[in-house]
Amino acid sequence: MIAKTFMGLEPVLAKELTHLGANNVEIGRRMVSFTGNKEMLYRANFQLRTAIRILKPISHFKALNPDEVYEGVKKIDWTQYLDLDKTFAVDSVVFSEEFKHSKFVAYKVKDAIVDQFREKTGTRPNISVANPDLRLNIHIAEDKCTLSLDSSGESLHRRGYRQESVEAPLNEVLAAGIILMTGWNADTDFIDPMCGSGTIAIEAALIAKNMAPGIFRKEFAFEKWADFDADLFDTIYNDDSEEREYNHHIYAYDIDMKAVNTARLNVKAAGLSDVITVEQADFKNFTQPKEKSIMITNPPYGERISTPDLLGTYKMIGERLKHQFLDNDAWVLSYRQECFDQIGLKPSIKYPLYNGSLECELRKYQIFDGRLRNFREEGGIVKTDEEKKSMAEKHRFKKNREFKKRIDENEENEEGDIRTFKFHRYDLDRFDNKRRRNDDDNTSDRRSDRRSDRKNDRKGDWKNDRKGGKGFGKGFGKAGKNFSKGGRNFNNFDDYDE
To answer: Less packed terminus of the chain by CB within 10 Å, N or C?
Structure first.
């Protein structure tokens, strides 16, 4: 099987898969291959935080032109996977000079399947781009073709808790990957001072409580497969034995009240108001937190989100960190070198990452009083062994960064998922029954029953929205100034097609 992800997150995904119990885990470019049974396939979709989708290869063959693709696909016995009353759709990813249009490749795959059924039965299955019964993926690298079943359907970054978003929201998979890269183990408070729609804070809470990110999803593509084991998936879905209490708190702030309201809505939809407090605040008023904390934030880059004084914003970030975040670690994701330069602090860790098409960096700043030499003499650790190992991946990343552009530029890094997806506005009843199907779904009763225990256990999360946390007053750091009103929105940025 193949788990797809963003460039730079492959080691994180590999670690997740290993922890999940997958075998033969191997890192590739924007993917990690692994082996496992049907349960592993279900768990990978339901529990992985840094996977975009999970593919199950069913055929490997070589093709130098579209006609050879057609013949290779037609050799497969499609009656194993499709019935005449079922619909299907085909996605294609092409890295080859021989194939000029990835959509044309998808059409050849479709034609091969349809023609096989026509020859055998005199009729054909239909195509449904919006909601097919079977999703297929063909990947071509030069002359090597891999045809796979798409077990995920909608990209796995679409968790299901996001009800609203602000301009350029951070992708959920990238947010989770960033948090996991920091090594944070939920033993401190967590702060995002420029939270936008609250994605980083929500993903941090899911990690802190060890909640599966797929719990809010409406469905996965594998639920429509002929061999779908409903009882097995019910067991996986309803197993909350690995969930845990988070004994600290997460604080999310933004200068823009619209962003604050959006983040609150998303936090409430996720049922995480007990551990996340969202307030309006200007980072320039940030004061030293009373509890040990980690800060992870994604300031504006000046690309899709404009700010009147971009460099001044980063200079302010550095000033606040230096004077009001002593003895804590801060992680900043950004794009421009000149922005990092304005922070004015020496990072201890640099991780290259792609935010959509933008080549960014995640930098760690260890804030301590005095000189680095004194910090080390007092037992301070600048880089752990694991961080040093991860930093070595930087060279591999840079070495393999340059590669042929995919023919279809509209699906860069999987963010341009050709299938549309629309979230509905927050509805309390809907989220009390968060995986409820339509009444005409002949499996809706079964699916509702299997999830009843978990929805009832979490029902109070949405009804008991916590108004504050751990003595935070009306400002940063439990003792800061009152929140300022107005100003530019320090929202999260992502080049992901939402």
So the answer is: C
